Amino acid sequence: MAKFSHFGTVKDAAARLRKTLKPKYPVYIIRRKLKDGTGHCILHERTKHRPKRFDIVICKTLQENTAVLLLVHEWAHTLTWSEKPIHGPKWGVAYAKCWNMLVENDEWH
Ligand SMILES: [Zn+2]
Prior knowledge:
Elements: H1 10-20, E1 27-32, E2 39-44, E3 53-59, H2 64-79, H3 89-103
Parallel strand pairs: 1-3
Antiparallel strand pairs: 2-3
Bound molecules: zinc ion.
């Protein structure tokens, strides 16, 4: 079985997601310390300096492997933003697509 580090970095995973599973608005990835030690996704309205965009915030103290798994979860939210329930079937399908993109080229079966 492959190690989770096989998934690479958050930066690499985000670059691949941007290419293949493009949300409606640009996605900014932000690493900072979060009290709950996890991650979240926010849709921001346009400001003077930045377009309407998603911010995916991932706790910076997490190991890279865990951070990549959170990124995949949050990316699925950017693809199904207005869907309710937020972790319903549409999110589940989007999550599967993101996951598949992450592992499609590896040899872990
Ligand atoms: Zn979620």
